[in-house]
Write a structure and sequence with these properties.
four-stranded mixed sheet; 2 domains; three-stranded antiparallel sheet; Arc Repressor Mutant, subunit A
Length: about 200
């Protein structure tokens, strides 16, 4: 195993099983050709698993059954965003479910992107990346964009005290600071709800 392979594998192990990596994530370790070759060899030796062109992960195992668990859709979507240099945010329904604001799992999860539309298969699931105009994508940090999408999807009249309390508990302090910084991107009622979440 050459030095770049060792460095790539060490970083992937350090970041943990289940995290999805794009080839571009390792360009500080060597040229694109060297990184691609390192990942290809690691996959051939089953040290890592190839999810798709330029996407790799170390599979996470179910501790009880000892079988591989499919990677998180959001992790795959964000890796594709890094790979293609595009912006990707979950649609409102996906964001609300991911944040625990809705128990309804979208039958066909959709992510919005300023890149090209495509269907992505993750394990036995398929989700869609839908191209939209850049002006239709919420701005701010990835977490802020997700929260804004979820609240917009739920609607002003559905934002209750339990909604605020849930987000207040769910979001770490750093994400709350980013939300407050990104408030100028959103309409008044969403900004009011976010202030309650962050200032409680």
């Amino acid at each position: 195993m050459d030095s770049i392979q060792k460095k790539v594998l060490a970083r992937m192990r350090r970041l943990g099983a289940g995290k999805v990596h794009a080839s571009k994530d390792f360009l500080d370790l060597g040229s694109r050709a060297a990184v691609d070759q390192a990942l290809s060899r690691l996959a051939a030796h089953k040290a890592v698993k190839r999810l798709g062109q330029g996407l790799y992960h170390i599979p996470k195992l179910n501790p009880t059954l000892g079988i591989e668990v499919s990677p998180d859709m959001d992790a795959v979507a964000q890796a594709i965003a890094r790979k293609t240099g595009s912006r990707v945010v979950p649609s409102g329904a996906v964001a609300a479910n991911w944040l625990g604001l809705s128990t309804q799992v979208p039958a066909k999860p959709v992510y919005l992107t300023d890149g090209k539309s495509r269907n992505i298969r993750v394990g036995g699931s398929v989700f869609t990346m839908k191209h939209v105009s850049p002006r239709d994508l919420p701005l701010g940090s990835p977490t802020s964009a997700m929260v804004f999408q979820a609240l917009h999807h739920m609607g002003k009249d559905s934002i209750r005290e339990d909604t605020v309390a849930h987000l207040r508990k769910r979001l770490p302090a750093e994400d709350k600071r980013k939300l407050l910084k990104d408030l100028w991107y959103v309409t008044g009622w969403i900004a009011d709800a976010v202030r309650k979440v962050c200032n409680g």
